[in-house]
């Protein structure tokens, strides 16, 4: 697949979906590779006790996309606002996130949702279903906040910007969610998930991401969740002006040169989500220090990416 030669070859906010299923599962699968001893067992125990589960022993990979499905159900529509923050900036001339301006609505936004559900994990409910739900939300929202168009209000996070992909009309938001990832790593299946996880983990441990990890985790204190999640949103939103909407993509074919610029950005953002999620969960369920940059890498892939529905 193209992603395997990425280094040498490349030298909505109003939508609830980010990264598509493969992207979210990869964020979770990357995080699994950096969990401290015992943390994965704690996560699995919470999910196994969930009365809403469809599998007997789900992992965080299996539940990574559940919040998207839930937000589109009648009982879960109240969670739609939690998946994004609507930055009312002016790309490509000015990008930026202002919590008082952009985190609106009765439910808040992805920033406050991360803080809220993190607190619920730090102080778990006696109701095991509520604790499992909080875990599922945290896993998902730390992926959402790395998708640039989930930090942008313009054209409903790019949903109203129509572009072309291999000659077919597509929404810009969907191109960033799914089309770039599919071209980069292949279809949403076990092989693609395992291979992409391997590639990202290798880059984090020994490759082009290794020196960037301290910066990615420069704010990663679960006790300062609103501030850290805001910083993550600002970091992600900067990409709107730097690349996503640096030039007007309306009506343009994006599967060529635009794709070649977007692909490494998306892989890096997925890597950021996985690394931050591991650090976050290691603090909540393990012995990691608040804001610690240390990650406990596994010798090999913990999960070989089963293609199963939660």
Could you describe the 3D structure shown?
By secondary structure, the protein is an all-alpha fold. It has one domain (13-285): P1 Nuclease (Orthogonal Bundle), CATH 1.10.575. The chain is 50% helix and 3% strand. It has 13 helices and 2 strands. It has helices spanning 6-10, 20-32, 39-48, 66-71, 99-102, 110-122, 128-144, 155-158, 172-185, 190-206, 213-216, 225-244, 257-285; strands at residues 162-165, 168-171. A two-stranded antiparallel sheet has the order 1-2. Helix 2 crosses helix 9 (172-185) and helix 2 (20-32) packs across helix 13. The radius of gyration is 18 Å and the shape is globular. The relative contact order is 0.21. The model is unreliable at 1-16 and 304-310 (pLDDT under 50).
Structural class from helices and strands?
mainly alpha
Query: What is the number of beta strands?
Result: 2
Strand line-up across the major sheet? 1-2
Number of domains: 1
Low-confidence spans: 1-16, 304-310
N-to-C SSE string, H for helix and E for strand: HHHHHHHHEEHHHHH
Distance between the first and last residues' Cα: 27 Å
> Quick one: CATH class?
Mainly Alpha
Reported by name, the CATH topology is P1 Nuclease
Helical residues, percent: 40-55%
Q: Please report the number of helical segments.
A: 13
| Residues in β-strands, percent | under 5%
Principal-axis shape = globular
Q: Return the average pLDDT rounded to an integer.
A: 90
Family: Belongs to the nuclease type I family.
GO molecular function: endonuclease activity; hydrolase activity, acting on ester bonds; metal ion binding; nucleic acid binding
Pfam family, one: S1-P1_nuclease
Signal peptide: 1-18
